[in-house]
Prior knowledge:
By secondary structure, this protein is of the alpha+beta class. The protein has 5 helices and 5 strands, in the order E-H-E-H-E-H-E-E-H-H.
Amino acid sequence: MDKMFFESKSRYAFDETVERLDNIIAEAGWRVTHTHDLKETMNKNGYEVLPVKVIELCNPKYAYRMLSADELRIYGNMMPCRISVHEKADGKTYVSRMNSALFASQIGGVVEEVMSGAYHDAESFVAQIAE
Length: 131
């Protein structure tokens, strides 16, 4: 676990990757709290980029463990978890995410437990669509 960010090639086209991830996330008991369409945002500001959507996802059981304690709320900026789906110039779709387990290992305790659990769950979601 020496890398802070990971990228996997999807077996599916861009829109299907996003749709499948949404379904996989929901089936696992997580919630998609918001999906940012960065291509649309950039277009509104006069810039053209390839498709990029950032899926924000939350597991209320994990979130509660951190948000219910005053001393842990400082780490709320690590929440919700995010998975980015993007297309590259090769026409392929990729999924990227942060290695929150590696980051949280520097903090330890409940933060490490929660963020490591979230990381492993997210990896299982991506594994279902990755080549």
